[in-house]
Amino acid sequence: MIIQKDKLFALLEKLKSGGKRIIAPTKRENILLFSEIGSTDEIIQDYINTRLSLKGFFLPRSEPILEFRIHQKNVEYTTVLEENIKPTVVFGVRPCDAGSLPIMDKVYTWDYIDEYWVKRRESTIIIAVSCLDCDEACFCTSLGLDPGSTKGSDILLTPVGNDTFLVEIASDKGKKLVEDNAELFAEGDADKDSILAPVRQKLGKKFDLSSIQPWLQENFFHKFWEQNTLYCIGCGVCTFVCPTCHCFDIVDEGTVSGGKRMKLWDACQFRTFTIHASGHNPRARQDERHRQRIEHKFNYYPKKFGDTLCVGCGRCVRYCPVDLSILRILTMISQLSQTGSQTSRAEEK
Amino acid sequence: MNYKEITEKIRERARELLATKKVGVIIGWAQGSTPQKTHPVFITNPDDVEQLVWNKFCYNNLSEYLNRQEIRAYGRMGIISKGCDNKAIVGLLQEFQIEEKDIYIIGVVCEGMGEPEPLDKCRFCDVHTPVLYDELIGEQVDIQPEEGHFADVEKIEQMSREERWEFWQKEFEKCIRCYACRQVCPLCHCRRCIVDKNQPQWIDLSSHPRGNFAWNFIRAFHLAGRCIECGECERACPMNIPLMLINKKLIKDVQELYEYRAGYDPKAVPPISTWREADDESFII
Ligand code: SF4
Ligand code: SF4
Ligand code: SF4
Ligand code: SF4
Ligand code: SF4
Predict the structure, then answer these.
(1) Atom 1, ligand 3: which residue's CA is nearest?
(2) What is the 3-state composition of chain A as percent helix, strand, coil, each rounded to the nearest 5?
(3) Domain identity same for A33 and A125
(4) CA-to-CA distance for B50 and B72, rounded, in angstroms?
(5) How many angstroms separate the Cα of B113 from the Cα of each of B4, B59, B119, B231?
(6) B268 CA: distance to closest CA in chain A (Å)
(7) A127 and A15 in one domain?
(8) Which of A165, A195, B81, B168 has the smallest C-beta neighbourhood within 10 Å, fewest atoms?
């Protein structure tokens, strides 16, 4: 099945007039961001990827979860949720970012069901677009993903030239969308593999994923961390641009008479992330905090959920202010594990 | 001296300083993940000095690390320092954050960072040769700063109040509160930043307009008369917020009001830390 670009944009306009919020890559003050569009003219189509991932549409940077009022000794509160859930279509999602959604679903549903996440996921349709180009920070293929993978998408479009997209239906939601708008789609086929061959070649395979977790399990105390991650400055860039980082903080803001309880992005790289009320900080050093980032993504999460907490989108590599590249860290670990260089606990610094 | 020769010289001096135990660590730049990047590196073993590089991409202001406990634990800190980074060391000395005995400065003459275009700050740089050093690598260069240092600030000053409001509202709306601007700043050295103080919570942590305005202004205000214009905050900002416009406005005001520019003289008393009875207080309501 195929769809022409004008038909595709007509579909988005139709969904929009049907009451859905349409999110797509747009230019906002000189950077490329997913944002709600007023018209399909705003959509940017020539891009490697957006500055921020789409996670903010499911887990906003900050949002109220309840409002409270205080009268003398009484506290009244109302929860805030339903009005924040809007039927949404996200267009132009890259396969890496789409792939992050099922990874995040596991975190938000394994024990406590996070309604905010789940309801937004249910009310959102993901229309992904395969990548025909990448940059040196991209490494999806090293994680078992692909510039044309359908993981996490409802529909995947692959540009096949002449303003035409190959259409792959990847979920029931996607199937329904196509059925409901069948008149916009057409019969047709294209050789996806040959279209994606150049970008796949450019991506290559940058490290051996299977070597990472065993090394991490053995080398919590390796001097590697001090040698290669201490220059991390402990900001929130890598965490906040990351589609799979999911930690949040809860804070109250307001006055003596009332206010809001806010849910905010948080980052394990912040010094305050683990500080106890006593003042003790179990991750007192920045290399320990950075080790947490790598261990969580490539050891703890895989152990618990059997997948990796990274999709290789490369954002953290591109935007780290001190060029502490996770890709470089993983490549080094992969090499170390081959040479068998390990320091035991006893040899630790 | 060209970049290669300076790199060699830096390595030679680092090796010597580490081998003779004059310093416990050398803070420098190493080859980054792409040819257009470098990353900070801490060398403690004379055999590792080959990692050190000097090229057009030594962006990071390494002075940021002088105040970090983990780095101080290595002993006396040898730091490779270009002129703008160097001004931050002046600030840290003035504010009693470090003592001269804790550091050994290898100044490097810098012709400017960035390629093909130099960084904005380098066009107006008047410290191609650092102010403060124990030894200097490179030959003095005669590069005059360009005219129009504050042209971008003047453009904002000429806007109407409404236009300015709209301009900053759009920019600050993007702020995701990652605090990279703070973390990267050598002079944002409070152990506990005001934004991390939560009893009471002085500044809203949310990214709504009130929270973002409060954060971005408090960050800039706390750097008034202290910011040495290294531009690192703006470079680090993942959302491309033009933070230097605010910093430069403050630099311009401090220069006009107090004839003071931060980062040039470790003996000078910064206007923010001094008071005279005769000071004009008419602005206090
Ligand atoms: S790795 Fe880079 S982006 Fe992440 S916290 Fe450290 S300095 Fe910031
Ligand atoms: S860790 Fe980096 S590369 Fe992996 S998903 Fe997060 S931002 Fe992308
Ligand atoms: S501001 Fe001056 S010292 Fe700093 S990088 Fe530019 S030219 Fe070099
Ligand atoms: S505020 Fe920005 S420009 Fe000024 S010293 Fe800090 S990082 Fe450098
Ligand atoms: S670096 Fe930019 S986005 Fe991050 S807190 Fe500072 S101004 Fe906001």
Answers:
(1) B122
(2) 40, 20, 40
(3) yes
(4) 22
(5) 15, 7, 6, 12
(6) 29
(7) yes
(8) A195
pTM of the predicted model as reported, rounded to 2 decimal places: 0.95
Structure tokens at B127: 């410290």
Q: Which of A135-139, A340-344, B108-112 has the lowest mean pLDDT?
A: A340-344
Q: What is the pLDDT of residue A349?
A: 41
Q: How confident is the model at residue A341 (pLDDT cuts 50, 70, 90)?
A: low
**What ipTM is given for this predicted complex?**
0.95
A289 and A338 part of one domain: yes
Give the A-side interface with B, CB within 8 Å. 28-31, 33, 51-52, 61-62, 136-137, 230-231, 233-237, 239-241, 249, 251-253, 262, 264-265, 267, 270, 272, 285-287, 317, 319, 321-325, 327-328
pLDDT of residue A345: 44
* Interchain pair B42, A62: CB under 8 A: no
In chain A, residues with a C-beta closer than 8 Å to the C-beta of B65 are 231
**Residue B255, both tokens:** 């220069």
Protein residue closest via CA to atom 5 of ligand 4: B227
Structural domain count, chain B: 2
Q: Are residues B16 and B71 in the same domain?
A: yes
Q: Are residues A177 and A304 in the same domain?
A: no
Q: CA-nearest residue of chain A to B32?
A: A323
Rounded CA-CA distance A299/A317 in Å is: 20
Among all ligands shown, which has an atom nearest to the Cα of B232?
Answer: 4
Interchain contact B32–A (C-beta under 8 A): yes
Structural domain containing residue B39: 3-137
Residue A133's Cα: distance from chain center in Å?
A: 19
Place of tokens 């004009």: B280
Q: Atom 7, ligand 3: which residue's CA is nearest?
A: B112
Which residues form the domain of A331? 209-249+268-348
CB distance from B152 to chain A under 8 Å?
Answer: no
